[in-house]
Amino acid sequence: MRNDHYTQISPDLLKKAKGNAWSLENIEAHGVSRNAIKYIGSSVGEQMDNGTDRRVTDYYKDAAGGFWFQDRVLQRDGTIVSMNVHLFGKEKKTSYRRYKRRKY
């Protein structure tokens, strides 16, 4: 999904998704491909701690009926950025490397 817009999710679909959604950060651990999910809409929350920016939660649905979410930030100037850009000032690469447990 583009980083500069969102589509408001319907209230009944939001009610279903909100309580059952898993974070997209964990999608690989659940054995679901990122290519198998479909964007279904977003909700805009209350103002964040700084008093000006607002959290945008994007919701997705997979082929099996599971719900997924990812948070972004609607800034004061109207742009929407990823949570990493909001927190760190730049896009942070996520490493999904698995570390082996040491044998002693």
Keywords:
single chain; 104 residues; alpha+beta; 2 helices; five-stranded mixed β-sheet
Question: What's the short story on this structure?
Answer:
It is built from two helices and five strands; from the N terminus they run αβββββα. It has 104 residues and is of the alpha+beta class.
Task: Tell me what the structure shows.
With 104 residues, the protein is α+β, with helices and mostly antiparallel strands. It has one domain. Helices cover 15% and strands 33% of the residues. The chain contains two helices and five strands. Strands 1, 2, 3, 4 and 5 form a five-stranded mixed sheet that branches. Strand 2 and strand 3 form a beta hairpin. The longest helix is centred in the first third of the chain and has 10 residues, at 11-20. The protein is globular and about 35 Å long. The mean pLDDT is 80.
Order of helices and strands: HEEEEEH
What is the general shape?
Answer: globular
Q: Mean of the pLDDT scores?
A: 80
Assembly state = single chain
Beta-strand content bin: 25-35%
Low-pLDDT runs:
none
Number of discrete domains: 1
Q: How many whole angstroms does the radius of gyration measure?
A: 16 Å
Q: How far from one another are the termini?
A: 46 Å
Structural class, from helix and strand content? alpha+beta
- Total helices: the number is 2
Itemize the secondary structure elements and their pairings.
Elements: H1 11-20, E1 21-23, E2 37-47, E3 54-62, E4 67-74, E5 80-82, H2 83-88
Parallel strand pairs: 1-4
Antiparallel strand pairs: 2-3, 3-4, 4-5
